[in-house]
Amino acid sequence: MSEPSPKPGTLTVLQPPGWKKPKGYSNGMAGRGTLVFTGGLIGWDADETFADGFVPQVRQALQNVLAVLAEAGGEAQHIARLTWYVRSVDGYRASLADLGAVYREVIGRHYPAMALVEVSNLVEPQALVEIEATAIVPDRPQGA
């Protein structure tokens, strides 16, 4: 059974009793702190140069999520939800092994609630993926 009111600074995985544990994501997360919402971040760097290919764009998009999150004092383990918009679910499925390695390289072994949606197009024509994040950054104790 999940703990609905986690202590400050932690996220709790919400896993209903009797449900199989999902691989690579959580069904839900709960936490206390400052909510942070990123925009849809794509696989280009600060100079708006795209990484070459789907997996490299995912790596860059995840790094971009962490860069925005850091502005609020957050880190990967504070991510409660990721929503991925991909141009091709088939391309996503074909890249699962490489995606898993890149995900663990950038995010680690933290698996928030996630959704994956195939879209026909993204605003930037070269973008193959766009990722949004919701995070719960622990409140800093006063005077810290």
Protein model, in words:
- The chain has 144 residues and is of the alpha+beta class.
- The protein has one domain (23-137): 60s Ribosomal Protein L30, Chain: A.
- It is 24% helix and 24% strand.
- The strands form 2 sheets. Strands 3, 4, 5, 6 and 7 form a 5-stranded mixed β-sheet that branches. A two-stranded antiparallel sheet has the order 1-2.
- It is globular.
Q: Estimate the mean pLDDT confidence.
A: 91
The fraction of residues assigned to DSSP E strands is 15-25%
Helix content: 10-25%
| Number of individual domains | 1
Total of helices: 3
Radius of gyration: 16 Å
Q: Sketch the major β-sheet.
A: 5 strands, mixed
CATH topology, by name, is: 60s Ribosomal Protein L30, Chain: A
Distance between the termini: 33 Å
H-E string: EEEEHEHHEE
- Write down the CATH class: Alpha Beta
Oligomer status: single chain
CATH superfamily assignment?
A: RutC-like
Principal-axes geometry comes out as globular
DSSP strand count: 7
**Low-confidence parts lasting 5 or more residues at pLDDT below 50?**
1-6
Structural class estimated from helices and strands: alpha+beta
Please state the second-level CATH architecture: 2-Layer Sandwich
